Amino acid sequence: MFSCNHVFTGLFLYRYLRLVVNLVAFCLHRPIPQPVNPRWTSEDVTVVIPSLQGGGVELLETIRSILLTRPFRIILVTIEAQEARAQSLAKELDCGKLQICSVAQPNKRRQMVRAIPVIETEVTVFADDDVTWPSTLLPWMLAPLEDQRYGGVGTNQRLRRADCPSWQQRVWGYLGALYLERRNFDCASCMFMDGGLPCLSGRTVAYRTSILLDKEFTEQFTHEEWLGQYHLNADDDNFITRWLISHGQKISYQYHKQAEVLTTLEDNPKFLKQCLRWSRSNWRSNITSLCCDRHIWKIQPWSTYAVYLTTISHWALLWDCLLIYFYLDMARPWSKESQSMGLAILVTWMFLSKFLKLMGHYIRYPVDFLLLPVSILFGYFHGLIKGYAMVSLNVTAWGSRDGADDDDAYRMTRVSSKYLEACESRSEECYTQ
């Protein structure tokens, strides 16, 4: 039915159309500008920082960088076992803007929900405890929220490079930096195309407080189900992004140097565990978006193709092998010279495609060009990580951070038969009414 020519052309277009279009979109994307007379200022912002440790040098530097943006209040939510440490940190800062809250068990969703009822401002910003903010961040995050149609705002992120790294740290840090660079590229380009993006990252994200205070939101946020079999208490930022989309709220992504947040990633083999956790989260969330919610098919058609479907369809090594195989089969009637020239062009394009959207990183750090083969090989290896993640979606462990897995058994628990019966009963009652 289909010749090798048709198959090769289809595979090539499916894989590389998004790259070419996204390259153009990325160059054309502009952040929403700050208004001349803004309705909201930093005094209308409360920053919530969920933290396991409740203290330490890294958290201290994070809070200091946030204080430079002059928010109304910072709420640090830790666990009860670390509350005394958090109080000591507050005394050390002595800023009058830091409020300490705690929960019994370490769980980010619980920590976020603990802070929401005490927020008094129109805008809430959630931030991780290992980020560094520029002093110019908040006006850029507030700019899209001047429009009532917007419910959430994300920012671009870069890796905070280690000082005097070892060779091993340099390699792992390079892979982490490319992960963030790739994410920035996808978010900015998809935002230009149809206002979509894969996820408003919880590293630093702003929401209208009224959305978070909605009782229905809180109920769903604390009782999310995965495949009707599990209560899911991980993937908080994915849930909120889907919630905004399904409830008609627009989202924005402010890609600008003055809105650039620095963060840390593992610079050792634990980075592989981070990749595994991210991959599982992507599988769970994207399957939910594609198959359960399904709003993105209509609202964000380009993002659906360019981001969401790649979770299922993008396997670098398999695609490269299939393209070469079908090219060779297609070119069999050609002369040897034409075959060789065509293969050279194909391989060159495949090579270029693996770093074109990462050019921003290489322009900033030209020496990292020497590590390009590492990036290509890791891209192939990541298929194994992605495959293992696909068959272990009921695992939510971090595996890369001390204390982060103390609540792992709570992050995904099986839904009891009694709970399912109660849900069915409520559904029948609503239907009857």
Can you count the beta strands? Answer: 12
The structure class reads alpha/beta
Q: Percentage of helical residues?
A: 40-55%
Through-space gap between termini = 53 Å
Describe this structure as you would to a colleague:
The chain is α/β, with parallel strands linked by helices and 433 residues long. It has helices at 4-28, 57-67, 83-93, 108-115, 137-142, 167-194, 209-213, 215-222, 236-246, 271-293, 296-299, 301-308, 310-313, 316-330, 336-353, 359-364, 372-390, 408-411, 417-432, and strands at residues 45-50, 73-79, 98-103, 123-127, 150-155, 157-159, 204-208, 225-226, 230-232, 250-254, 261-263, 412-414. A hairpin with a 3-residue loop joins strand 8 (225-226) and strand 9. Residues 423-433 have low confidence and may be disordered.
Furnish the topology, listing elements before pairings.
Blueprint: H1 4-28, E1 45-50, H2 57-67, E2 73-79, H3 83-93, E3 98-103, H4 108-115, E4 123-127, H5 137-142, E5 150-155, E6 157-159, H6 167-194, E7 204-208, H7 209-213, H8 215-222, E8 225-226, E9 230-232, H9 236-246, E10 250-254, E11 261-263, H10 271-293, H11 296-299, H12 301-308, H13 310-313, H14 316-330, H15 336-353, H16 359-364, H17 372-390, H18 408-411, E12 412-414, H19 417-432
Parallel strand pairs: 1-2, 1-4, 2-3, 5-10, 6-11
Antiparallel strand pairs: 4-7, 5-7, 8-9, 9-12
Helix pairs in contact: 1-6, 1-14, 6-12, 9-10, 10-17, 14-15
